[in-house]
Amino acid sequence: MFIYLRLLKESFTFAVNALRNNKLRTFLSLLGVTIGIFSIIAVLAAVDSLEKEIKGSLSSLDNSTVIIMRFSFGPTDVPQWKRQQFPDVSYDEYQHLKRSLPDLEAVSYVIGVPSESIKYRDVTSENVDVGAVTSEYYDIEAFELREGRFFNESESVSGSPVIVLGHEIANNLFGNSNPLGQEVRLYGRKMQVIGVLEKQGSSLFGNSRDGQAFVPVNLVRRIYGDNNKGVFPQIVLKPEDGVDNAEFVAMVEGQLRNYRAIKPGETNNFFINQLQGFADFIDNITGQMNIIGLIISGFSLLVGGFGIANIMFVSVKERTNLIGIQKSLGAKNRFILFQFLFEAVILSVIGGLIGLFLVWVVSIIASQFTGDFEFVLSLWNLMLGTIVAAVIGLISGIIPAISASKLDPVEAIRTGF
User: Fold this and answer.
1) Where is the ABC3 transporter permease C-terminal domain (predicted)?
2) Which residues have CB under 8 Å from 333's CB, separation 6+?
């Protein structure tokens, strides 16, 4: 055991001496490993960060959530001309599903409307993302209220002039003042503030809830009507825990087909979008990005491996006389083999650590310029980079190490002279 520790120490010393005595040669040789490890870990970190941000943006909704609308989240076999003829989901269909579906925890009717301005006295917040929803939306979304409450079913059905503000909108309009009970103007109407949402932070998909305001859907229906193609109605459903998602979707499809009198064999004129399917789609995309990035980065590592192999062949040639002396003094072949293998691994790991350090620096700088988007450099990626560097060193150094271990001691000493 002690002899291998001593061997490791000597190999490290040889590696450091190689760095000191042949700075340019060593730098060029390690540059490939450094760039390769940097490329691989940078790609993995970027994809992990993107995936975390996407899933964080979707985390407010449960993966079992189902959204019915005339648009599809992903690719579809239905031709565009036919999709354009699909009718919007209606408030009556929302009520029908609410009455008839079993195993339903909550269902909400939501209308996507254009951004609006909200005014309070002399202060105006522009481009506010207005969410027109029924009261059940509070049970579907993971809302956290900083103060006040969400509107109830009675206010939702009657279309009462009440509003719940996002954190940023409330701060813009009221500053440090208490917004509850105050009246703001939206759609040219006075609306009473009954709640303020907790701060969420930025979101990858458009505005976060900080820049939103929520109002009863029936109030918006009276303004826009039920046949306005400038808005996007949808029905959002959340099944009870433990319900089989496929069976639930089949029940939703059957109920809506019956309500719309769609005959057997006819194509649905609506889309049932599942967040679980969207999450799987995101996982598939990020997986493909990882594979493509790894393939491209692999070429850099291949060049780096050749660089390590080259420096090890040169190192064997330079130390041929020393190898002969070691073997004449009783050093076994495996001792020489491990000596050069350790040196190759140490050199490669040094290059890999430099690459990891550069990724860490770049991730810090990038995070400063991307606001709330955080680049994730996980411990697993750091370990992976170190392991890959060590493996590259091992593979690159095996042939030079074998050639060194098989040298004849007499010929090796004679070559040195």
Assistant:
1) 295-409
2) 405, 406
Cα gap 69→270, rounded to integer Å: 6
- Give the domain range for residue 259: 87-269
Cα dihedral 97, 98, 101, 107, rounded to 10, equals: 100
Answer yes or no: are the C-beta atoms of 113 and 222 closer than 8 Å. Answer: no
Element (H, E) at 25: helix 23-58
Beta strand 116-120 with 145-148 is unpaired
Q: How far apart are CA 76 and CA 248, in angstroms?
A: 21
The residue behind tokens 């089949």 is 250
User: How many independent structural domains does the chain possess?
Assistant: 2
Which pLDDT tens digit goes with each residue over 264-302?
888 898 888 876 655 566 667 767 777 776 777 677 777
Which of 269, 291, 306 is a domain's end point? Answer: 269
Asked, for residue 81, whether it belongs to a domain, the answer is no
pTM for the model: 0.61
Measured from the Cβ of residue 250, the count of other Cβ atoms closer than 10 Å reads 12
b/e for 149-161, b at 16 or more Cβ within 10 A? ebbeeebbeebbb
In a shared domain, residues 243 and 109 = yes
**For residues 350 and 52, what is the distance between their CA atoms, to the nearest angstrom?**
30
Pair (287, 388) in one structural domain: yes
Q: Where are the beta strands (DSSP E) in 38-94?
A: 66-69
pLDDT beneath 50, residues of the chain: 204-206
State in Å, rounded, how far the first CA of the chain is from the last one: 34
Based on the fold, state whether residues 236 and 288 are members of the same structural domain: no
35 and 184 share one domain: no
- Give the bridge partners for 273, in sequence order: 67
CA dihedral (327, 331, 337, 341) in degrees, to 10, reads -110
> What string of H, E and C letters represents the secondary structure of 130-148?
EEEECCCHHHHCCCCEEEE
E strand intervals along 198-292: 212-216, 232-239, 271-274
Give a yes or no: residue 69 inside a domain. no
Sequence-distant (6+) residues with CB within 8 A of 388 are: 37, 40, 301, 352
